[in-house]
Amino acid sequence: MNAGVSWEETTVPIAGTAVRVRRAGSGRPLLILHHDFGSPDDLPVYDALAAGFAVIRPEHPGFGHSERPEWMRSARDLAVLYRLLLGELGIDKATLLGLGFGGWLAAEMATMAPADIDRLVLVGAMGIQPPEGYIVDQALIGYLDYARAAFHTDAAFAAVWGAEPSNDQLELWDICREMCFRIAWKPYMYSQTLPNLLQSMQAETLVVWGEQDRIVPISACEAYMAALPNARQVTVAGCGHAVDMEKPEELARLVTEFAGAA
Questions:
Q1: Count of beta carbons in the 10 Å neighbourhood of residue 115
Q2: What is the value of pTM for the model shown?
């Protein structure tokens, strides 16, 4: 963690749900939406981006310490909640950075009011059915194995989560998986309507994919590129699904160059 970055944590009530939000930095607003297996509070990529943006990092409701909304039944419900969060925070226009499952949420948000989006960055995004292959089903493997599969190497996984994650972390992964089953089960981790809705989304979009992504096939990247009218693609070599954790400096550079940090 960069000692020069000071993170403020608050709890924001949205749609009857207490949402944990961390904020740091100044400049253009950047909303970061994390993976379906959660995120550590402190990652180098967060600090790097806070050096140039006003970063907003909510923790998905039901995926950890944020309250679980019993009413929520779809990824689009969660995307609407985040739209409400931006309004509550007084943010009229933001760049959205979606990581994996968070990429699906960001894409859904972008279709709701396209003019309100500054730029969109999708990293290994779920949300579209891959034309070839499939998104790895968490019901078929353990939550620890699923988190490991997000990384290109075991060493990269251990650098973030440790060689033997704590029991508390294992419990959090189980909670995340349960919430995924609640809101992203049928169909699993994609929307049948999203590809069509994205065709009217005019905001500039950067689609980033790890070359060795074992969670979401690269064909899903191609499907996003086909659906988005104004997008360009970057493939990150020597990296799996969790580009933000394996290649933090490269991702921060890509986002900064693309979104124009103040």
A1: 7
A2: 0.97
